Every structure is written in structure tokens, then in C-alpha cells.
């Protein structure tokens, strides 16, 4: 986490959020809505109808020029050169030892243009690393600091977009998962991708910050009759946890190699990016690995809590990275890094909950998977 | 975010409210505290007969995002905990000064509490 000595930067949608009565949280140097009214209601709306998220704090930058895809492959461990225009891929930025500097989504906009969306907390690290790694190639790295990002997530997301006044995207209905298309909002060009971080169908729309508030209102007006509500970062976190998606700073960090997080498949076999070779070496016998844990009752394990093999052991065999009472499932869920001997499904482990030990069971991730029709 | 604080209650810097009635204090957490926590999903409260002491942690209040601690604002003995609120913790968010009360405690000595105006100043209202 970066130092938070400077005043928080407001989102371009700050006035909208204030008018809606949001509570704010400082996140990676930004003041962002943590919830509008009830994080549980916002969570449920995303599972049952749709949620509207402001993600303007996230880093957006492009690589443009004849070597755009090659340059992306110098920095990231995926093969962007093999990605058709209009497609997106989850990827990683690694350090030389294979530790995770950030997880990103990379979008191939055109043969000579690539968009990368990275975590807000890692904005500077990612842009600096990519710039260093593409030096000498015929490519320009542009930090899109003046763009907002708005997500519509949930089973009604496509319908919300279809009914949004002024939003035009060709063949929205046939835009596949992990695809991106150009569109417009009024006279403003937008990029619209069928991606997200909630486990539901949904879209992320990149738009110049100056037009973001108008788009936010149009989406809200179209969506409210369909059950859409504005949702904050608290709901986003419980949604992504249910979906088993890693969060940088919790499940991912420089001390974690991708295979520990079950992300070995993200590292392309042919990648020569920094860290790729180290990341490809298989999991060692002593390396902890990421597991899902479920418990009973209502008390949830929280990030940082120690995990033990039994009720009396003094040496922990793991640590919780994220945990919550699952709003959808109704029982506690958590992710943890544990020793390999304790990582098999159905193993019973114990979490120290502020002095008492709660039994939990190892399960495979995700906790929640949407029904696809 | 401009909800008025009830004038007839005392408050603590740990965001509890206290209603004094004879030698009994009813204790809850303020609307501000509930809003800061987010949706409350679990309460762990001391049972009837438990001794509590001023400033000590006597219970836990968990939201989807975090764990909050309940501090006792006074020395005494628990007469009753709000079992309805334990069963339906969202009551604390919905009605923090009413149905969302947490404990009734019999005390020997009345504690020093903040007035509504003093507490409002503390939380910047």
C-alpha cells in the first residue's frame, strides 16, 4: 500500500456519489464509495439484478504503435501477440523472481493498440515497469489518467446497457465474454468490455472523465427499473471473494509466485517476460498454496488470522488472506495460503478467531459459480 | 448522515450509547458506529450474570467487512442481552437506538458520559 499522506483524490463521479449518500473510504490514494446504503443489499442486487460500480481509481494505459503487442509481451506473461483484436486476457506483471507485481486485464484493441487495466494501488509501479521493459521498441505508452471506468455487473447487465439512452455499441448482445468493442455515448467514444470482478455477467466501460457523470446517470436511470443499484467497494470485495478471485495485497503480492495462487496457466509457455521462467518452475514441496475454506455459523475468519492443523497446535500452517460471511451462501468463506500437507480438499483445519479456534474445511475455489443459461 | 442523536442518552468515545433508568443501563452502539461498520452480520454478547468492567471488551460486532469490539461503558452485571438482535444482527443497523439495543447492565456507580452535543462534536457532526 502506498503512503496516504497526500489528500485523497476524488473520483470524477464524486458529486454523484455524494448526492446518493455514499460512505467513502480512502483506497490507494483515492476517495471512493465503500457503500451507498447497505453493502449486503448491493451485493444481492449484483447477484439477482445488477450493480453499478465506479472503478475510476483503476489504472488505464495503452500501448500504441507497430510493436504494441510485442511490447506487451515483453512486460506481461501472456501472449498478446496471439490475441485477436477485440479480445481480452487476464495477465500478470512479475518481478525477476516470479513474484507478482500486479494482476491486470490486457485488451487487444487493434493490431497496433493494447489497453491495460491495472490495480489502483499499483498504478505507478505498473506504468513504470512497462515503460522500462518496452524501451527501444516502436511503441508509445500512454497513461490514460483522464479516463473514468464504470462497471455494470449482474444478470440484468446486458439489458441495462441495451436500454441506456445515448449508449451505442454494435452487436452488444453478441459481444462474448472477455471481448471488447468500441462504442459511443452521445458524441463521446467509449470502450466497452464484457469483463468484471464479481462472478456475474457484466461490462466495464472506459470513458473520458468529463463525460463519466452523464453516463453514470444514464445507466442508473435505465437500470433502476430492472433492479440495478449503485454498489460500493465493500460489495465488490464480498462478490469477488465468493467468486474466488484473487485480490492484490491479499492473495497476490511480490512474495507469491503464480503457481501458489493456481495461476500457472496465466504464464504463457513461450513468455520471456521478466519472472516468467521463475514462475513456470513447479510448486516446491514447502511452498504454501491458496485454498478455499468454509465454516459453519456466522463468525468469519479475517485476513491475517492464523490457520492451524488441529485445535491445540502452536505452530500455524497457514494464514487467512480474505474472509467474510458469504452474503449469498450464508456461511463463512475465506481464502488462505496453507502448507501443501494441509491443502487437500475436505481437510479440516482450525482458524484462530481472536482466541478461539473455529473448524473450517478446505474446498476448491470458487465458492460461488453463476448458473449459465 | 445528518441523523440527530437522541438527547436523552449518554455517549462514550467508543461510540456506545447508554440509557440510564434507576440502577440499570441499557447499552447500544450509535448510528454512526453502525454506519462505519457497514451491514452487521454477527453479534457476540455476554450472557446474563456476566460481570463487566468499564473500558473492557465485552463483545464483538462483525460486519461483512470488519470486526468491531463492544466496550463496556461501566462496571456492573449483565441483566439481559438482546437475543433478538443476536438472531437478527441487521436490527442494529436498522434501529440502533431502539430494537437494536445490546445489553442491560445493573451498575453500582453511574459512569461519566458524553452528552449528545459532546458526542456530535467528537464525530464531527
TrEMBL record, chain A:
Q: Where is the GCVT N-terminal domain?
A: 15-269
Keyword annotations for this protein? Answer: Aminotransferase, Transferase
The organism encoding this protein is Cnuibacter physcomitrellae
Q: Name the Enzyme Commission number(s) assigned to this protein.
A: 2.1.2.10
**From what superkingdom does this record's organism come?**
Bacteria
* GO molecular-function terms, A-Z: aminomethyltransferase activity; transaminase activity
Q: Name one GO cellular component term.
A: glycine cleavage complex
Q: State the protein's name.
A: aminomethyltransferase
TrEMBL record, chain B:
Q: Which cellular component appears as one GO term in the record? A: cytosol
Q: What GO biological process terms does the UniProt entry carry, in alphabetical order?
A: glycine decarboxylation via glycine cleavage system; protein lipoylation
N6-lipoyllysine carried by residues = 65
- Cited PROSITE patterns: BIOTINYL_LIPOYL, LIPOYL
State its cofactor: (R)-lipoate
Q: Which UniProt keywords apply?
A: Lipoyl
* Top-level taxon of origin: Bacteria
InterPro entries named in the record = 2-oxoA_DH_lipoyl-BS, Biotin_lipoyl, GCV_H, GCV_H/Fam206, GCV_H_sub, Single_hybrid_motif
Q: How is the cofactor bound?
A: Binds 1 lipoyl cofactor covalently.
Question: Could you describe the subunit structure of this protein?
Answer: The glycine cleavage system is composed of four proteins: P, T, L and H.
Describe the family membership recorded for this protein in Swiss-Prot or TrEMBL.
Belongs to the GcvH family.
What task does this protein carry out?
The glycine cleavage system catalyzes the degradation of glycine. The H protein shuttles the methylamine group of glycine from the P protein to the T protein.
Please report the name of this protein according to its UniProt entry. Glycine cleavage system H protein
What gene name is listed for this protein? gcvH
